[in-house]
């Protein structure tokens, strides 16, 4: 049962993230069509074709929401049926199943009924907006607000406002980018740009107002921000929200110049909007992860203090000497179990059972083992950052820096989970049942993938423009993964102190990925600046890793 | 070119599929009778688990593991006035027990936990 619930939690966050992305794109697309593109389409050159493109995107988003919500609800229903032993008809009456079913039905209606004809009729258009509103209402029923003991009504309205803000702004950006790609008329760009700016401002206002209220009710005080997993995740969301605001401000200046009939860097606006989509979706996955942790205000014990953070991060020389594998807690436990079994003349049980839900034992040597891993990873990443900078400055041989990623991947594969093959007794395949081991292996796969792609691109083996984008995309996705990665450490405080180091690493990863994206996609000064930003982010990641402590 | 694009899409799909993890507790156990690692006398006992959020009582579960490792599913009393509680009763004999609980919060999040406690001989 423990494995099933852990796997359920793992998959449900992923699916929930996909649901938020699809829901925001569907609602954002619908609002973009009803309040921007449809009223302007007769004024724009090829307005009908543009409308058709955004209609298609919105319908696909609705289909995506249909599938993601269906999978998420089915997973939840299955987990509940198999762990509590209730029949399907009973589980389908649970509030999450009802709201999931409502969202599935709404998505299906929009996917099937949204077209140029319905968009042109005021009654049909209003009905579609109403279906969108129902989606939003159903979505708020699966937020923290619905299960709160107090202030339910207020918190439900606030949660709805937050999701509406995210939909109209971040969810609308893919439609905006699509229009920017196909619209080349200056006056048309000015009209679309300035109207989308106003819609975005409304979205930002909704997010800001609801965000402040949620911070008051769910976090409560300053210690809630730095002393709990919920607060740390919200802080990361706020940091990314600020980055979006900076990019949005850049785009606002472009639309203002266009509105005044002056020359404006439209391509920059498009590229910035692409990055906004990436960071916005990262925020959605962070939000999905946030729904699985209890609000900070409910955690009155096991909070981390500033003093504990300062003690943990006191400067110390990196650890470049590894403890012996036999000194680790799991090895010592296995020796003890073997000895006891031999005494009783029976087969010795394994010291750890993958997927049992029990955190593995830890001692001081385990901590030293983990710090050694992080510090050597830091050396690799600092070298990568330095060589990338040298390559940027014109040193030819430094272009082979992505090969260091392969060394890093090999190092992590061997050392990340000492209880697993090749160092430990645990079978390679059986270890996939352990959620943390699975995450580590997927990280390794990601590192290998972006190392190979970037090296192939830099050495001319891959000449496709799209192949060059794999590295930034995977680095950004890796940052998003790290943002929501958690460690199975029994002590809640220790776990949070580890997360506190990983959060800036994740944010630097997201920043590195998207600045490299800009370097590739944005010609001129902006791209050149971005070309120095991402190696600097790698240097920062390396230095944070060298600073890393677990005790 | 086409193969490369397919590979990119596949890589991204894999990456997106693992882009998020978070198996932490959602419903927080605020208080309980018996207390975790606490002791109580043998006999007919009220079991009360109090959470930070509203719980779907009909779709949650309490399993009592007795000292001989036998498992009993406890019937949960539905009580609309105490929406954040899982209440039940059990007849306990001296020994070490564990209460496995699984709570479905009203917003759809499943959380599980263990509550170990000791039953002493009745005075």
Automatic annotation (TrEMBL), chain A:
Q: Which domain of life is it from?
A: Bacteria
Q: Which GO terms describe its biological process?
A: copper ion transport; response to copper ion
Q: Give all residue intervals belonging to the Copper resistance protein D domain.
A: 191-290
Query: Which keywords fit this entry according to its UniProt record?
Result: Cell inner membrane, Cell membrane, Copper, Membrane, Transmembrane, Transmembrane helix
Kindly list the places in or outside the cell where this protein is found, as annotated in its UniProt entry.
Answer: Cell inner membrane; Cell membrane
Q: Which membrane topology term applies here?
A: Multi-pass membrane protein
| Positions of transmembrane segments | 13-37, 57-79, 91-114, 126-147, 153-180, 201-220, 232-254, 275-297, 376-394, 401-418, 438-455, 467-484, 529-548
Q: Which is a Pfam family this sequence falls into?
A: CopD
GO-annotated cellular components: plasma membrane
**What does the record give as the function of this protein?**
Involved in copper resistance.
**Which protein family is it in?**
Belongs to the CopD family.
The molecule here is called Copper resistance protein D
Source organism per entry reads Dyella solisilvae
From TrEMBL, chain B:
The leader peptide range reads 1-27
CopC domain location: 26-119
What GO molecular function annotations does the UniProt record carry, in alphabetical order?
Answer: copper ion binding
> What does the entry give for GO biological process?
copper ion transport; response to copper ion
Return the protein name: Copper resistance protein C
Top-level taxon in the UniProt lineage: Bacteria
Family indicated by similarity:
Belongs to the CopC family.
Name the SUPFAM superfamilies for this protein.
E set domains
Q: Where in the cell is it found?
A: Cell envelope; Periplasm
Q: What is its main location?
A: other
Biological role:
Involved in copper resistance.
């Amino acid at each position: 049962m423990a494995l099933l619930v852990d796997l359920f939690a793992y998959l449900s966050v992923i699916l929930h993230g996909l649901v938020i992305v699809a829901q925001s794109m569907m609602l954002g697309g619908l609002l973009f069509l009803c309040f921007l593109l449809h009223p302007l389409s007769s004024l724009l050159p090829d307005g009908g074709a543009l409308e058709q493109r955004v209609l298609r995107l919105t319908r696909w988003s609705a289909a995506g929401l249909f599938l993601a919500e269906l999978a998420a609800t089915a997973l939840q229903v299955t987990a509940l049926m198999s762990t509590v032993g209730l029949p399907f008809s009973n589980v389908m009456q649970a509030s999450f199943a009802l709201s999931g079913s409502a969202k599935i039905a709404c998505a299906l209606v929009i996917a099937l009924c949204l077209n140029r004809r319905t968009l042109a009729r005021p009654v049909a258009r209003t009905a579609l907006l109403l279906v969108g509103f129902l989606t939003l209402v159903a979505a708020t029923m699966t937020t923290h607000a619905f299960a709160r003991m107090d202030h339910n009504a207020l918190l439900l309205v606030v949660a709805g406002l937050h999701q509406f803000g995210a939909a109209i702004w971040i969810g609308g950006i893919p439609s905006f980018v699509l229009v920017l790609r196909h619209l080349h008329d200056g006056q048309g760009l000015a009209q679309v740009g300035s109207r989308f700016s106003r819609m975005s401002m409304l979205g930002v206002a909704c997010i800001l107002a609801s965000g402040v209220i949620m911070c008051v009710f769910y976090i409560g005080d300053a210690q809630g921000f730095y002393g709990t997993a919920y607060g740390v995740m919200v802080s990361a969301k706020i940091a990314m929200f600020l980055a979006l605001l900076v990019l949005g401000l850049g785009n606002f200046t472009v639309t203002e110049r266009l509105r005044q009939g002056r020359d404006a860097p439209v391509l920059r606006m498009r590229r910035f909007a692409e990055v906004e989509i990436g960071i916005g979706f990262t925020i959605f996955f962070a939000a999905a992860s946030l729904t699985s942790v209890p609000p900070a205000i409910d955690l009155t014990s096991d909070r981390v203090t500033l003093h504990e953070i300062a003690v943990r991060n006191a400067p110390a020389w990196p650890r470049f000497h590894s403890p012996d594998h036999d000194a680790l807690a799991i090895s010592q436990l296995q020796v003890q179990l073997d000895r006891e079994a031999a005494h009783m003349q029976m087969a010795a049980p394994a010291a750890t059972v993958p997927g049992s839900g029990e955190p593995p034992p830890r001692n001081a040597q385990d901590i030293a083992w983990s710090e050694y891993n992080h510090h050597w990873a830091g050396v690799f990443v600092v070298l990568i950052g330095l060589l990338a900078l040298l390559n940027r400055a014109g040193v030819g041989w430094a272009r082979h820096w992505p090969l260091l990623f392969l060394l890093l991947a090999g190092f992590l594969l061997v050392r990340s989970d000492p209880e697993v093959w090749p160092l430990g007794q645990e079978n390679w395949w059986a270890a996939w049942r352990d959620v943390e081991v699975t995450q580590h292996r997927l990280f390794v796969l990601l590192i290998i993938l972006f190392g190979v792609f970037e090296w192939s691109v830099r050495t001319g083996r891959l000449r496709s423009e799209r192949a060059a984008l794999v590295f930034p995309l995977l680095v950004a996705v890796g940052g998003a993964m790290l943002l929501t990665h958690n460690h199975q450490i029994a002590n809640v405080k220790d776990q949070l102190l580890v997360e506190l180091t990983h959060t800036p690493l994740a944010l630097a990863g997201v920043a590195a990925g998207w600045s490299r994206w800009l370097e590739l996609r944005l010609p001129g000064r902006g791209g050149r600046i971005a070309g120095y930003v991402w190696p600097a982010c790698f240097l920062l990641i390396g230095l944070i890793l060298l600073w890393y402590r677990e005790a | 070119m086409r193969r490369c694009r397919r590979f990119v899409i596949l890589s991204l799909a894999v990456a997106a599929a693992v882009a998020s993890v978070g198996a932490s507790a959602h419903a927080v156990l605020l208080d309980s009778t018996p207390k975790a690692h606490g002791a109580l006398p043998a006999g007919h006992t009220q079991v009360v688990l109090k959470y930070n959020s509203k719980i779907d009582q009909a779709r949650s579960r309490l399993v009592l593991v007795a000292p001989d490792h036998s498992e009993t599913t406890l019937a949960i009393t539905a009580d609309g006035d105490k929406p954040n509680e899982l209440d039940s009763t059990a007849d306990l004999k001296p020994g070490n027990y564990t209460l496995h609980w699984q709570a479905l919060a009203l917003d759809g999040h499943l959380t599980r936990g263990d509550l170990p406690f000791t039953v002493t001989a009745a005075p």
